[in-house]
């Protein structure tokens, strides 16, 4: 069994924001696979089969800073080891249009990842970072991540979400090393 968790904030006012890149990717994946989310584990959960293995998709509804609670609840209930968890989230240190897949690491200042590390008790879980770029001069970082993507960024976002779907699907079916080799370019 595997878990793919996409981080974001619940509520319509956050739906199209940079900080919701994880939710956006999971929504696109669920749409592609014709899956429906249902409330469970302080989140919205969908399930599917990939590579002969059950895979849960999770969008925590706890707000970003407490995302780890929802991830831990689902992982504990289904006995999913951290090495079988992928967390998809926004990353300001990557330019928009870039992905980075990692098998472990620090939170890098991301509160959703800090929460996940604290709740799982380890840094050893997979992450797919979706680049959202840095704010331009005069923008506060918090305001930037909670702002919507610009009209100019939307085509790039669409392309990167498509690549992200392929990356998490390959991770679930064939493993992280293969996915990293293909998508960390």
Overall structural class, as computed from helix and strand content, comes to alpha/beta
Strand arrangement, largest sheet?
2-3-4-1-5-7-6
Which CATH first-tier class would you pick? Alpha Beta
Radius of gyration, CA atoms, in whole angstroms: 15 Å
Helix content: 25-40%
How far apart are the termini?
28 Å
How many helical stretches?
6
Number of strands: 7
The sequence of SSEs as H and E is: EHEEEHEEHEHHH
CATH fold name: Rossmann fold
CATH homologous superfamily assignment: Peptidyl-tRNA hydrolase
What is the molecular shape?
globular
3D structure, described in words:
One of its GO terms (molecular function) is tRNA binding. The active site is at 19 (proton acceptor). Its EC number is 3.1.1.29. It is built from 6 helices and 7 strands; from the N terminus they run βαβββαββαβααα. It is α/β, with parallel strands linked by helices and 185 residues long. The chain has helices at 21-33, 67-78, 111-120, 141-145, 154-174, 176-183; strands at 2-6, 38-40, 43-50, 53-60, 85-91, 99-102, 126-131. α2 (67-78) runs parallel beside α3. Helix content is 37%, strand content 22%.
Quick rundown:
Helix content is 37%, strand content 22%.
Features:
185 residues, alpha/beta, single chain, Rossmann fold, 37% helix, 7 strands, seven-stranded mixed β-sheet, 6 helices
Annotate the secondary structure layout.
Layout: E1 2-6, H1 21-33, E2 38-40, E3 43-50, E4 53-60, H2 67-78, E5 85-91, E6 99-102, H3 111-120, E7 126-131, H4 141-145, H5 154-174, H6 176-183
Parallel strand pairs: 1-4, 1-5, 5-7
Antiparallel strand pairs: 2-3, 3-4, 6-7
Helix pairs in contact: 1-5, 2-3, 5-6
GO cellular component, one term: cytoplasm
Enzyme class: hydrolase
Site (Stabilizes the basic form of H active site to accept a proton): 90
């Amino acid at each position: 069994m595997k878990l793919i968790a996409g981080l974001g904030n619940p509520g319509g006012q956050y739906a199209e924001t940079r900080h919701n890149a994880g939710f956006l990717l999971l929504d696109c994946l669920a749409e592609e696979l014709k899956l429906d989310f249902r409330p469970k584990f302080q989140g919205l959960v969908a399930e599917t089969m990939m590579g002969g293995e059950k895979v849960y998709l999770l969008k925590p509804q706890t707000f970003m800073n407490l995302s780890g609670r929802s991830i831990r609840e689902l992982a504990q209930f289904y006995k999913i080891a951290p090495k079988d968890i992928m967390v998809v989230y926004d990353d300001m240190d990557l330019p928009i249009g870039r992905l980075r897949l990692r098998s472990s690491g620090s939170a890098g200042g991301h509160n959703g990842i800090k929460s996940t590390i604290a709740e799982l008790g380890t840094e050893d879980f997979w992450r797919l970072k979706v680049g959202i770029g840095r704010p331009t001069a005069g923008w506060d970082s918090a305001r930037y991540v909670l702002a919507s993507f610009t009209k100019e960024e939307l085509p790039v976002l669409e392309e990167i979400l498509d690549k992200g779907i392929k990356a998490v699907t390959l991770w679930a079916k064939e493993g992280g090393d293969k996915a990293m080799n293909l998508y960390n370019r």
